[in-house]
Amino acid sequence: MSALPFGNYGFTVALYVISIMVAVSGISLGIGYAFNERRFKDFGREELYQSIINGALVGGLIALFSSGGMVGSLIGSLTLLNGTSLTCSAYMSGNPALCLSYDYLAGTGPYTFMGVQHQSILSMTTLTLTSLFGLDAVLGVIASVNVNLVIVQLSFNYVLAPILSEIQYIIKILSTIAISALVQASVISFIAVGALSLILPAGLILRSFYPTRKLGGFLTALSIGLYVVLPLSYVFNIMLVGSFSSNTASPNINQLTLTASGIEGNIFSFKPAVNSTQGNSIGNAISGALASFANSVSDVINQIFSMISYFIVYTFILPAFSLIVTGISVKELAEVLGSEAYFGRFSMLG
Amino acid sequence: MALRKACLKIPIVFFLSFAILAKYIYAEPFSFDVVGTLSAVQQTLMQVGPIFSAVLFVLGGIFYAVGQLFPSYKRANLHTMAIDIIIGAIVVAVLSVASTNLAIASTHLLTNLTSNSL
Questions:
Q1: Which of A215, A202, A282 has its CA nearest to residue A17?
Q2: Could you tell me whether strands A116-118 and A111-113 are parallel, antiparallel, or unpaired per DSSP bridges?
Q3: How many A-B residue pairs are in contact by the CB < 8 A criterion?
Q4: Euclidean distance between CA atoms A241 and A103, whole angstroms
Q5: Chain B within 8 Å of A127 (Cβ-Cβ)?
Q6: Where are the domains of chain A?
Q7: A174, pLDDT greater than 90
Q8: Rounded CA separation A150/A148 (Å)
Q9: Three-state secondary structure along A161-174?
C-alpha cells in the first residue's frame, strides 16, 4: 500500500469506527424489523448507507492523496512547469504548490518560476525597510542640526520634517506588508503540517458518527480545500504577478542615503559664519544641496510608492480572492460530504 | 394496543442490551489507547450481535408457540410478530458478524489500494 497521507494509524482508526457503526446500524435495523419500529429502521438504514459511504471516502481519499496519487500528480503538473525550481522544507515536499506559495511569500532565498528568478515578498520588503532605516537615520541627524548664518538661524528640522514623516509612514506600511506575508506563510506551513495528518482523519472519523456527521463533513471539506485549492490559487496569483508586474525592483534608496550622508558631511564641515557674507555663501550652498536632494527624493519616493502599491495587491487583495475561492470550494464540498445521502426512490423501501 | 406493545418492547430491548453490554464492557478494563479501545468495542459488538440475534430467535419462537394457543385472529397477529422478530434476528446476526468485512469492502469500492484486513 503506497504511503498514506495520515499514516496507518489514522486508517486503522477510521476502519474500526466504520465497522463499529456498521454493527450498530445492523443491530438498530434488526430491532426495527423485529418490533416494527420505523424510527429504528430508518436510523439503521441511514447509518448503514453512511458507513458504506464513509468507507468509500476513506479508500478514495487515500488513493487521491497518497504519495504518487492523483492529487499530487495534478498539483505537480500545474506547479512544476518548465524552468521552475524551489527549495522546500521536508514537511512541504509532498505538495509543490504549498512549497511555491511559501517561497513566494517568505522564502529566504530566490525561487525560479517559469524560468524567471524572483525574490520573496518578505525579502524584498525587508531589504527596502533596511535601506529606509539607514536613510531615516541620516536625515534624522541632519534634521537635528541648527546652522547659524549670522542674520538667521537655519533649522533643518523644518525643512526635512515632511520627508521624515513620509519615510516613517512608508516604513509602517512596509512593516504591515511584511507581517501580512509572514502570517500567510505561517498559514501555509500549518496547512502543510496539519491538513492531511490532523484535519482530514478527524473529519473522516467524526463523519462516521450521527451527531457529528456535519462537523466531520465540514472538516473533511476544509482539509481538501486548504491542501488543494488554497495553494493552487496562490500559484495562480504567482502567475499573475509574473505576467503583469515588473516594477518590484528595489528602489535606489542606498544612492539617496549616500547623497544625504554627503550633505551631512558638508554641513558638519562648515566653519561657523562670522559675517553676513559668509552666512550668505553657507546658506546658498545648503539650499543648492537640499534642492538637488529633494529632486532625488521625489524619484525614489515614486519608485517606493509604485513598489508598495504592487505589494499591497500581492499581500492583501490577491490573497483575499484566494480565500474567497477556497471558502466557496469548502462550502460546496461540505454540502456534498456533510449532507444526508439521497438515494431517491430507494429510500422508500421497507 | 400500541401502547401495550411499546410498554413491552422498549424495556425488553433496553434490558437485554444493557445486560449484555455490561457483562462484556465492565468485565474488561478500558484502555487509553484509541486503537485498543476501538478494537475492544468492535469485538464486543461482534459478540453481542449474535447473542442478541439468538435471543430474538428464541423470542420469535416463543411468540410463534404462544400463538398456537389463541384463536385464529390473535394467532395471525402473533405469527406475524414472530416472523418480524426472526427477520430482525437474521439482520442483526448478518450485519454484526460481517461488519468488519463490510467496512473493508467499502474502502475498496472506489480503489483497491487499502489493505484487506484490519
A1: A202
A2: antiparallel
A3: 144
A4: 14
A5: no
A6: 1-67, 73-339
A7: yes
A8: 6
A9: HHHHHHHHHHHHHH
β-strands A153-155, A146-148: how paired?
Answer: antiparallel
What pTM did the predictor assign? Answer: 0.77
CB contacts of A24 in chain B (<8 Å) are 45
Q: Where are the alpha helices (DSSP H) in A66-155?
A: 70-79, 96-106, 121-143
- Spatial separation of the C-alpha atoms in residues A248 and A306, rounded to whole Å: 8
Cβ burial A286-312 (10 Å sphere, 16+ → b, else e): beebeeebeeebeebbebbeebbebbe
Phi and psi, residue B107, nearest 5°: -70, -20
- The whole-angstrom separation of Cα B14 and Cα B3 is 17
| CA–CA distance, A230 with A228 (Å, rounded to integer) | 6
Q: Mean pLDDT across the stretch B99-109?
A: 89
A12 at the B interface (CB within 8 A)? yes
Q: How far apart are CA A60 and CA A336, in angstroms?
A: 15
State how far the alpha carbon of B52 is from the alpha carbons of A281, B43, B99, in Å. 110, 14, 15
What's the pLDDT at B12?
A: 61
Asked if the model's pLDDT at residue B51 lies above 60, the reply is: yes
B115: nearest CA partner in chain A: A1
Per-residue pLDDT, A344: 47
CA pair distance B57, A117, nearest whole angstrom: 76
Residue-range domain boundaries for chain B: 2-107
pLDDT tens-digit series, residues A15-30 = 889 999 999 999 999 9
**C-alpha cell of A140?**
534624522
pLDDT in tens, A285-311: 777 777 777 777 878 888 888 888 989
Name residue A111's beta-bridge partners. Answer: A118
Smallest CA–CA distance from B83 into chain A, residue:
A34
Please name the residue that has the C-alpha cell 511569500: A105
Question: Nearest CB to A19: which of B34, B100, B115?
Answer: B100
